[in-house]
Amino acid sequence: MLGLALRTLRSRLSGFVGAFVALLCAAAMVTACGILLDTGLRGTVPPQRYAGTPIIVAGDQEVHWTTSKDKGDGEVKEKTKSKPLTERAWIPADLAAKVAAVPGVAAVRTEVTFPATVIGAPGDGESWGHGFESAPLTPYALATGAEPKTGEVVLDAHSGAKTGDTVRVLTADGVGEYKVSGITATALDGQSSVFFSTDEAARLARAGQLTAIGVVPAPGTDTGALADAVRAALTGTPGKVYTGDDRGRLEFVDADAARVKLISMGGAIGGSALLVAILVVVGTFALSMQQRHREIALLRAIGATPRQMRSLIGREALLVGATAAPLGALAGIGLGVWLGSRFRDLGVLPEALDLVISPFPPIVAALATLLAAFVAARVSARGVIRVRPTEALSESGSAAPRVGVARILAGLLAVAGGVVLLIVLSGLRTEPAAGPVTFLTAIVWVVALSLLGPLLARAVAFLLTPVLSVLLRAGGYLAAKTARAQARRMASVITPLGLLVGMTATILFVPTTMGDAAADDLRAGTLASYTVAGHVPSSTAEAIRAVPGVTAATESLTTTVRVGQDKYRAQGLSAQNLTLTVDPGVVDGSFSLDGDHAAISSLAADQRGLSVGDKFTVTMGDGVHVELTVSAIYSRHLGFGDLLLPYPVVAAHVDTPLASTVLVSGTADAAALRAAAGPGLAVLNGAETADARDAAASANAEVQLIAMGLIIAFAAIAAVNTLAMATADRARELALLRLIGTTRRQVLLMLRTETAVAVVLAAIVGTGIALATLTAFASGMTGAARPGFELGTYAVIVGGAAALAWIATVLPGRVALRRQ
Amino acid sequence: MSTTVAAPPAVRLESVTKTYGKGANAVRALRSVSVDIPRGSFTAVMGPSGSGKSTFLHCAAGLDHPTSGSVRLGDTELAGMSETALTKLRRTRVGFVFQSFNLVPALTVTENVTLPFRLAGQKADKEWTAEVLRRVGLEQRAGHRPSELSGGQQQRVAVARALVTRPEVVFGDEPTGALDTVTAKEILNLLRATVDAMGQTVVMVTHDPVAASYADTVLFLADGDIVEAMSSPTADKVAERMTHLGAWS
Ligand SMILES: Nc1ncnc2c1ncn2[C@@H]1O[C@H](COP(=O)(O)OP(=O)(O)OP(=O)(O)O)[C@@H](O)[C@H]1O
Ligand SMILES: [Mg+2]
């Protein structure tokens, strides 16, 4: 059987090219996504700042909670869940003495970390200030000069400064002038360090708190044992012991968030790719099965059992898969590296997190692809069992087989699944949940299309026959008639085209749906006439408030917090004259952020069961719990986030306690504001603010597009594939038409009309799928059933699909006609 | 006194009916056909188009299930057999020559001929395969692909494949229908020779009175019934009978 499979494969290569290409692409995409996933799961972040210290004591960078589930039989199952914090956790300074007292500890070096940027210095990474006492943690040694005294700083080797220079340094305290007392011998990649005197550092950081304590072991002490001893000494305190690569994770807090994102994105894209691959390969196999109808009937007649036929087809598929999968997996490594570098450019993959390239993703991808090929062959071989051996004897070739009951049932099941997913989707209100479900919904609908396609094609062709015959005479008549008799072939062409239109529209319009809704919120809710953007210290905000004509200047700072176990986007806003700059659309209560007052979106209020006047506890980004009171409930959460908190509360619990924007209302003009803001800050009017926001949004959309673009490319390849295959196979039919007196032009007109019918049908169905999916997505996420369809982009999608279809039909058609 | 039990005929059909479709669209392709095909005979089946010849052949050869009645191949009752059992039976006990599209394009002549063995998971008898190929005059072409052969040669490969398993009956549905007269004669002589020299049983559906004249017996079908069995047919006699049946009026 294997020999026979190999033989048929070799002689019918053209019939398998489609499946081969599809499987190759699938293997490559799954490998690339696997590399992202693997990086998310196992990527290590080597320590930089703490590289010179084997044991670091710092705060717990995770929040934990236990969920208990009553399993019915009285037994209660407890499960502890941990999620990474989004900001650095601080620890009390008195822990240092506790750690120093542990036997085997030679010395402890305490560290504080706060934003400190030398204005005008080179380097594009982040810049952090520390006390000079923590320099040995890396270790940093002085190349020239001396350690800093009050009013002095030591800069790193990349700073470009010289000992004796005077520099201006921006900290949360404002801009200060310092003298450079020394330069270190080394510097770190992607981050700059500014060392202050210990007193100055303590003043600029959080009072009485540390970000880390470095443990210097006494000579001859075993590090592992010492780490255990320190851990034991710290039980019951917020201090945690970090060694090895864990020190890196401690240093790069955002790497953990990036990891989670890589895992979810890699999984979603890889999974979609595999589903689309199965769909496409089933399509191409089914088509090649149709083309081999008579051969299969002959084999059945001379003694091949249905089982043998199924295994023959299964083996052919495995052979195709076995060639395509390793090649694709290999190419996928390159694709993964490319994706990684694009993601790094876009900031999704942090500098510190190295791409993990191991043999696992390609191996798993190759196996998954092989499995997909086998499943696809099994599914398409179902039709083979129905091939009657007597068909080998009949001269007329294969008559259109009836659409099987099982197929109709499966199709209806897919429709039911699609409807259920639409309902589920319209109830999902958070992006991580809605994202994958959106794509799954679209795919399930395409599956339904592929199953019920023949019925659809037949019905449409039946309706179209009179119209086309009148409009296009013989060519149109033939096109409509063949479409009806060859409903299956028509369907096999409509499916990949519908997939192309439907998936592309869904992928492209998810971000616009969200973006449009968020922009609407912001447009309606922003009362300020100017926005000052950059890192704005409080002193500068005060200076802006003092500009004549300014009625309100609201400092704003965003962070991520948790209420209970749910994660929310939160914004800190300064309370003074707040209602002159921001209108979040209050639906209940009165909007105030004074003292412990906070406002909450109606979505979050629903989820947490909160109403005006309720007290609730927020876990800030650094893990500290803060108790606040609900002053108002508002509706514009897409533009403003789910929580509006007092600015000082947010500033006290983030790594960078500087306002990212200041919203300014009043009659002051831009020049006056610019003068007050000083250099390094942008003053934007309403339109410029919107543009800046659009730019940020489109950068975010680009990440989606790069990843999902692979699926679009895949769908396009599949469509071209199937169309070319379907046309090339019709050489005999076209020759016959020519023989009985059909002109070349009429034949080409027929092909073009068929393609046009297919494209129009696919566009209608694909658009329907995208519209339904996006409407459900929009009503869940934005509360309004308004999908963000952009007509220009949409025209490009349909036009592109039509162009691809035209090329893939008419070119092979011309070739087939010339060959006679 | 010794009693000789008569050997059963190669094929026996008893009251076989075949109806396609249901209700108002039902077509009765065979209406109660009973016939014996003796061993070692060459039988031609004739009749107007649509009279049920192909259907008769399909039912007799186990390619299709009759609606009712009994079909016996030697001692084996085919009615009620499962699809897989029928398939296995076709592999070794029946040979087929179709009008066209007889061969798997991917395989060489030898591979096509030995395909039934391969499907049965058996080793092909090399000597016998070579002998069959020699008899059909294709020993020089054993390694060629079907696309490299003429239509007549392709039909001879099909005959070789039909003979190679030493089947009880070889069935042909217009095996010469797509050939010119000279090539058709070669194939008919070949079939005649297998009956005479090897004692093979052959049943052949044909439209051509000349082809039918090679047979020992001609069965005439009309409207799904056998209306006559003619022995020692000649082309003229067959043509006259056919005209009578309204085939060529
Ligand atoms: N699969 C089928 N479904 C429905 N009707 C069929 C089918 N196959 C054959 N028939 C009908 O059964 C009758 C007998 O058909 P059959 O093919 O046996 O005729 P035939 O004698 O071989 O004709 P021809 O000489 O044209 O080949 C015809 O009326 C035909 O229309
Ligand atoms: Mg016939």
From TrEMBL, chain A:
Keywords: Cell membrane, Membrane, Transmembrane, Transmembrane helix. GO terms for molecular function: transmembrane transporter activity. The chain crosses the membrane at residues 262-287, 317-340, 360-379, 408-427, 439-472, 493-514, 705-728, 749-774, 794-817. It comes from the Bacteria. It is a multi-pass membrane protein. Coiled coil: none annotated. PANTHER family: ABC TRANSPORTER PERMEASE YTRF, MEMBRANE COMPONENT OF TRANSPORTER-RELATED. This is ABC transporter permease. The keyword Transmembrane helix applies. One of its GO terms (cellular component) is plasma membrane. Residues 269-385, 706-818 form the ABC3 transporter permease C-terminal domain. Pfam families: FtsX. It is found in: Cell membrane.
Automatic annotation (TrEMBL), chain B:
The keyword Manganese does not apply. Keywords: ATP-binding, Nucleotide-binding, Transport. The keyword Ribonucleoprotein does not apply. SMART domains: AAA. InterPro entries: AAA+_ATPase, ABC_transporter-like_ATP-bd, ABC_transporter-like_CS, ABC_transpr_LolD-like, MacB-like_ATP-bd, P-loop_NTPase. Pfam families: ABC_tran. One of its GO terms (molecular function) is transmembrane transporter activity. Residues 11-248 form the ABC transporter domain. GO terms for cellular component: membrane protein complex; plasma membrane. This is ABC transporter.
